[in-house]
Fold:
Amino acid sequence: MNEEIKQIAERLKGLRDVLEISVGEVAEVCKISPDEYLKIESGTVDISVSILHRISQAYEVELTTLMFGDEPKMSSYFVTRKSKGISVERTKAYKYQSLAAGFSKRKADPFMVTVHPKPDSESVYLNTHTGQEYNYVICGRMLLQINGKEIILEEGDSIYFNSELPHGMKALDGKEVKFLAIIL
Structure:
C-alpha cells in the first residue's frame, strides 16, 4: 500500500490508543469484524472514506484530520486556492482533495474527487456512510451505482443521495472523471 494509506492507518491506531477504545468497539462502529479493522490499522489494505467518516462521526474527530493529519484552525472562513487542497490518493483509482480542511467544526466535507479509469471487467467498489452526499461532475463521465441502480452522469450533471445506501463510481470512456463531492 502507499505511504498515505499507512499514515492514515497510524492516525487511526493513535486515535484508538488516545481514546482507550478497543479494536472491537471501533470495528462495531465501522460495521466490520475486528480482524478487518486490524487490517486497516496495519496499513496493508485500502481505507474507504465511509470507514473514516463513521469513525470521525462516532468519536467527534474531523474527517480531514483522519485523512490528512492536520487539525483545522479556522472558524470564520477558509480559502482553498485552485489545485491547492490537501489531497490523498487512496488507491490508484481514486484521489480525494479536501476543499475545506482548514475550517473547524464543518457541517459538510467538500472534496474534489478524481477517478481514474479501470478495466471494464472490474466491478464498482461500493461503500456506505451516514448522512447524505452531493456529487457534481466537473469533467468526464461516470457510472454511479446506488443501491443496485446504475446512473450515468456527464459533465454538468449532479446528484444528491442517501449515502447510507451502497454506492460507488467508475470512470467511463477510458478517461478520468472529476467531480465535486460534498458529504453531509
About this structure: The radius of gyration is 16 Å.
